[in-house]
Model the fold of this input.
Amino acid sequence: MRIRYVSFVVWLGLAPLLAGAVHAQAAADTTRVESADLRAVQPWLSGVLAPDKLQHFSLAFSLGLAFGVMTAEPAAAGGAAVLALGKEVADSRHGRFDGMDLTAGLIGAGCAALLIAYLER
Done:
């Protein structure tokens, strides 16, 4: 039962990445056509499943999972949240702060903390 639940949580964490890959392929196909309407691609590039947001989520999830596994403490996944915050603070110095990037990083770190908490029970 435990392995099944862990598999579900991991797939739940990977679902946005898989959805992004499907959207990426669709966007790549539409950009190859010279008459493609770029306005149809634009929401995907700036939406919740934009590649940048998925990268922030997956990096924070991976780092949080690594920190949590190394220390056997779910709170260690907070280190990934601190790194996500630091990245956006550094970006704000150049005028490129994005709250959605920060949110994606915090969600990724939170998912890692939940998974570590479950695994360490």
Observations:
- Residues 2-32 form the longest helix (31 residues).
- Residues 2-119 form one domain.
- The chain has one domain: 2-119.
- The CA atoms of residues 22 and 29 lie 11 Å apart.
